[in-house]
Amino acid sequence: MRCVRGDRGNSAYGHQKFTRSRSRFTDRITADGRDGWPVEAGRYRLVVSRACPWASRAVISRRLLGLEDALSMATADPIQDDRSWRFTLDPDGRDPVLGIRYLGEAYERREPGHPGGISVPAVVDVESGRLVTNDYQRLTLDLATEWRDLHRPGAPDLYPEKLRDEIDTVMAEVYEDVNNGVYRAGFASGQDEYEAACAGVFRRLERLASRLAGQRYLVGATITEADIRLFTTLVRFDAVYHGHFKCNRWKLAENQVLWAYARDLYQTPGFGDTVDFDHIKRHYHQVHTGINPTRIVPLGPDLSGWLAPHGRETLGGRPFGNGTPPGPVRADERVPARGRP
Fold it and tell me: Which of 98, 99, 324, 328 is the least buried, fewest Cβ under 10 Å from its Cβ?
């Protein structure tokens, strides 16, 4: 499972073995258009949920790279119904660009009656209304490389060629034990399964803390794709994974290194300004009825700490390398006050 549709299957979480599904639609949007989908400003629409860590990768990458004008974005309601991700945040409950009420309509246009789930992030061809890709693992790498001609001036190189082997190794470890590990713990159907997954999460986090104790970012002296992928789990850790997913050996705020690292990224333009804690908390607690049947959303944790000084500048490094931070968030994409510290 990724961030898939909210049907009755959500009541099965915690009652059957957790297996993450692969992306069914893996076409790539490339500079040369070899899959039939060339990079073209205004042609595609990125559909996301701010609740979803996999979709949040794309939201952060798009903003850091300055692709807002080239790739428009639709934000789904964090609470799904039995027809999948819905556009109830928009006037008349319909996406103003695609003209649809449910993301599932774009999936149906791509493959009528397809058997898979309806997941975000998803990229839709605006003219035809057809889904192009839901390959969350490849999407952000392509935004960083194939979309380069449309990047803003001063955009960071999030996937530098000379560091790709190391970035790929770190990302694979983070994915297996942290990004996916919290889900294996949270949706475990037995004690042994849960304990193995939870132990793996904290074992990897401790190794990452050791790595980050002496360097500001995961790979090299600047932000890379590896930092984005770790951040999207860390920013959700105390809000949902610690309690809701029972990853509770310690809180992120109790680990000096990782807490400072996460705050450093949160306070970096392009990271924290894309995070909506309200969407995150409501989605996890109200959609995963198999592990939270009451659908009660906790009041905490206190979010003010995300704005506290982090002191990571002393480790050196420059977040954007020789580039510059992104400009102010577009008015129509600002996170509402209730979703921010």
Answer: 328
Peptide bond just before 153 cis, omega within 30 deg: no
Residue percentage of the chain with pLDDT more than 70: 93
What is the crossing angle of helices 225-236 and 53-65, to 10°? 130
Contact between 116 and 21 under an 8 Å Cβ cutoff? The reply is yes
C-alpha separations of 207 from 93, 174, 203, 315 in Å: 45, 10, 6, 18
Q: Is there a catalytic annotation at residue 13?
A: no
Q: Side chain identity at 135, as an amino acid letter? A: D
CA distance 159 to 263: 22
Residue of 52, 217, 241, 247 marked active site: 52
pLDDT 10s digits, 103-127: 999 999 999 988 878 999 999 999 9
The single residue listed with the structure tokens 């998803």 is 122
- Alpha helices for 66-156 (secondary structure H): 104-110, 136-145
Active site residue: 136, 183, 241, 284, which one? 183
182 has pLDDT over 60: yes
